[in-house]
């Protein structure tokens, strides 16, 4: 994946760039907003990591300018300004995700992966399939190997989120945001509890598990090899 | 001694606004007096002159008629008689024969032509101006009737001096009054400036003097005083927060330091170092949690979020929050009784309200009795608005401590053993205030009952 990191703090930029490179991505760096806009304008990047407060052109302005120029590259704001309202402002400017500093690197990586591989918005998808697991979005029903599985509404939302990101690591924070609409950490084991309940409902005797726990990162739903 | 004015502009009465206003007022008054005097002048002296002219005309007409009836001789007698009767000596006559000889009268000069004329009379201790009317008599001869203008001149003089006195008095009174008012205003403004200077110099509790009159100065002073109260309150809150932060972060920081130091001394092997690093990350995360909570409280308290208020489904939020805390309640074998009718909305900041409710639930689960019961109830009031109550059956909060627990970092002694930042209820209070919700901590007999009365949606 080709990633552009626009960040003026050299240490943070090093940290992010090194981590992403270790994870096998190609990383370009820009130290100010104008340079970032220049590099991002040709649209060859898979995803952008943008600081909110940048010299010359701030992050909001950068993303707005890109969107105005028709560049649709997914962008993630990585910023110390993570107050209530800042996130909304960032998303309204045209960013696709928002992550407050300080952050865990695994969180950033998971979110970038999710952004870059986000399927194009298509309303036509009505059935999600992973191995023998099937979710009908219209009938709101889930079956595994043809057998119907009863899910609570929240469990359904959780499973849908995981199935739409098959093979990707999904963090606890991402789940809290998407499934419960919590933009802070309530310090409870709600995600773990729901995942284990979901596992109990999905897993069958003798069949390989579908939901995997990625230690220190999150969860991943994928078909058995 | 009042502190010196940093701007260096000592108050000068002649530079004061009040004085300038008085001066302007004075000039306008003087102009008014002048205009009035002008009109009075024109009316009075004009009237006196016209009166004089009428007298002259009447006399003249009578005498001419007499000439016509009785001839010049009888008129001469009549003139002599009039002159004898005129004690004030303001009447002047001349009856001239056709050859120019004076037949009667006290005027020497003969006017050249009939009609109005101003004559100057001098000699024999008299030096005055006359208003005279000359008339050619039937059958030759000439009659002049005149009146002394001195009374009119006198009137003019009187008017002038009266105007002078009035003007002068107005000027003096105006100036004096201006000085007095100016000094009064300047004194009060200086008192306010001095009081503000003391506040500026660090006496933050000092307030502006307020008299009981309630004039504009008092209103201004009162307004400034309430502003100062607010500023002082904010400063105290800020100082409280910084003190609290310093105090509360010192503990985890020292713990972090101890952990690292002891690892440096004794740790051997990757596993030990790994454990130390993980512990350090955990400590750092705790401190970051404190900061995040403080920032949220500050945001809620600033009131800036009010602009972003939107109506949202409170029922859904309450359900999500109870669901999120259900595992923790389960771990403590608590029964979570939730009674939330669907579709109740309020106007507000969804994120902050979610966090607030999460903190209330977290509090109930942590401090409720293990194996006990937690009641969450949302009800719509018939009069509009909704009420949320969360009750646990734990030890509760003693009545005298209920206000204190809403402050930052305040933790009851009994709660010190449980993990937490001591900011949870402070955030609840800040968010409730931001939304205009009434927050009550009450007795659930036993246990704590948190009641939030939320205003109706008025979007």
TrEMBL record, chain A:
- What GO terms in the biological process aspect are recorded for it? regulation of DNA-templated transcription
At the top level of its lineage, which domain of life is listed?
Answer: Bacteria
Gene3D superfamilies, from UniProt?
Answer: 3.40.50.2300, 6.10.250.690, Winged helix-like DNA-binding domain superfamily/Winged helix DNA-binding domain
**Coiled coil start-end:** none
Q: Kindly list the positions at which 4-aspartylphosphate occurs in this protein.
A: 51
The DNA-binding region ranges are 125-223
Q: Which residues form the Response regulatory domain?
A: 2-116
Keywords per UniProt:
DNA-binding, Phosphoprotein, Transcription, Transcription regulation, Two-component regulatory system
Instruction: One GO cellular component term, please give it.
Output: protein-DNA complex
Do the record's keywords include Cell division? Answer: no
Q: Name one Pfam family in it.
A: Response_reg
Query: Which molecular-function annotations from GO does this UniProt entry contain?
Result: phosphorelay response regulator activity; transcription cis-regulatory region binding
Domain OmpR/PhoB-type: where?
125-223
> What is the designated name of this protein?
Response regulator transcription factor
| Organism (species) | Dankookia rubra
TrEMBL record, chain B:
Locations listed in the record? Membrane
This protein's UniProt keywords: Kinase, Membrane, Phosphoprotein, Transferase, Transmembrane, Transmembrane helix, Two-component regulatory system
Q: Which Pfam families match?
A: HAMP, HATPase_c, HisKA
* GO terms assigned for molecular function: phosphorelay sensor kinase activity
Report if keyword Hydrolase is assigned.
no
Tell me the leader sequence span.
none
Q: Which class of enzymes does this protein belong to?
A: transferase
Family matches, as PANTHER family:
HISTIDINE KINASE, SENSOR HISTIDINE KINASE YKOH
**What protein am I looking at?**
histidine kinase
**Which source organism?**
Dankookia rubra
**Organism placement in taxonomy:** Bacteria, Pseudomonadati, Pseudomonadota, Alphaproteobacteria, Acetobacterales
């Amino acid at each position: 994946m080709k990633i552009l990191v626009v960040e003026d703090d050299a240490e943070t930029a090093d940290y992010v760039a090194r981590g992403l490179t270790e994870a096998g991505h190609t990383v370009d760096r820009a130290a100010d907003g104008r340079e970032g806009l220049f590099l991002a304008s040709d649209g060859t990047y898979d995803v952008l990591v943008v600081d909110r407060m940048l010299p010359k052109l701030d992050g909001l302005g950068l993303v707005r300018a890109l969107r105005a120029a028709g560049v649709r590259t997914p962008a993630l704001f990585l910023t110390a300004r993570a107050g209530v309202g800042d996130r909304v402002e960032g998303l309204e400017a045209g960013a696709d995700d928002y992550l407050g500093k300080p952050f865990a690197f695994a969180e950033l990586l998971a979110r970038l992966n999710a952004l870059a591989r986000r399927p194009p918005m298509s309303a036509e998808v009505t059935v999600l399939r992973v191995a023998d697991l099937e979710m009908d979005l219209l009938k709101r029903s889930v079956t595994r190997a043809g057998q119907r599985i009863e899910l609570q509404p929240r469990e359904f939302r959780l499973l849908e989120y995981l199935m739409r990101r098959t093979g990707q690591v999904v963090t606890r924070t991402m789940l809290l945001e998407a499934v419960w609409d919590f933009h802070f950490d309530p310090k409870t084991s709600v995600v773990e509890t729901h995942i284990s309940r979901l596992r109990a409902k999905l897993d069958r005797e003798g069949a390989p598990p579908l939901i995997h726990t990625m230690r220190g990162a999150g969860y991943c739903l994928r078909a058995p090899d | 001694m009042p502190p010196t004015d940093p701007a260096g502009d000592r108050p000068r009465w002649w530079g004061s606004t009040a004085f300038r206003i008085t001066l302007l007022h004075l000039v306008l008054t003087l102009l008014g007096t002048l205009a009035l005097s002008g009109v009075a002048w024109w009316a009075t002296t004009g009237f006196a002159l016209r009166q004089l002219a009428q007298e002259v005309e009447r006399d003249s007409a009578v005498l001419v008629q007499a000439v016509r009836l009785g001839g010049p001789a009888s008129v001469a007698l009549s003139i002599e008689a009039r002159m004898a009767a005129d004690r004030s000596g303001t009447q002047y006559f001349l009856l001239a024969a056709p050859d120019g000889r004076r037949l009667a009268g006290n005027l020497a000069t003969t006017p050249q032509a009939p009609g109005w004329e101003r004559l100057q009379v001098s000699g024999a201790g008299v030096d005055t101006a006359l208003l005279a009317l000359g008339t050619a008599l039937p059958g030759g001869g000439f009659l002049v009737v005149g009146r002394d203008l001195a009374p009119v001149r006198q009137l003019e003089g009187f008017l002038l001096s009266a105007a002078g006195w009035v003007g002068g008095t107005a000027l003096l009174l105006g100036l004096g009054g201006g000085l007095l008012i100016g000094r009064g205003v300047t004194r009060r403004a200086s008192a306010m400036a001095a009081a503000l200077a003391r506040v500026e110099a660090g006496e933050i509790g000092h307030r502006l003097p307020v008299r009981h009159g309630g004039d504009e100065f008092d209103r201004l002073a009162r307004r400034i005083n309430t502003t100062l109260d607010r500023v002082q309150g904010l400063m105290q809150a800020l100082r409280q927060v910084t003190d609290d932060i310093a105090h509360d972060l010192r503990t985890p920081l020292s713990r972090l330091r101890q952990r690292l130091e002891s690892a440096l001394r004794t740790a051997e092997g990757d596993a030990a170092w790994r454990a130390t690093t993980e512990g350090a990350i955990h400590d750092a995360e705790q401190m970051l949690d404190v900061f995040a909570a403080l920032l949220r409280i500050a945001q809620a308290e600033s009131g800036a979020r009010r602009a972003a208020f939107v109506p949202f489904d409170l029922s859904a939020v309450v359900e999500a929050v109870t669901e999120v805390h259900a595992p923790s309640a389960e771990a403590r074998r608590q029964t979570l009784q939730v009674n939330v009718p669907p579709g109740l909305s309020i106007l507000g900041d969804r994120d902050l309200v979610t966090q607030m409710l999460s903190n209330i639930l977290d509090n109930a689960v942590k401090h409720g009795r293990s194996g006990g019961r937690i009641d969450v109830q949302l009800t719509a009031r018939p009069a509009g608005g909704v009420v949320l109550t969360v009750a646990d059956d734990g030890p509760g909060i003693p009545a005298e401590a209920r206000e204190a627990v809403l402050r930052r970092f305040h933790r009851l002694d009994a709660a010190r053993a449980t993990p937490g930042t001591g900011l949870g209820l402070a955030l609840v209070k800040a968010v409730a205030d931001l939304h205009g919700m009434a927050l009550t901590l009450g007795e659930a007999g036993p246990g704590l009952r948190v009641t939030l009365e939320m205003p109706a949606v008025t979007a």
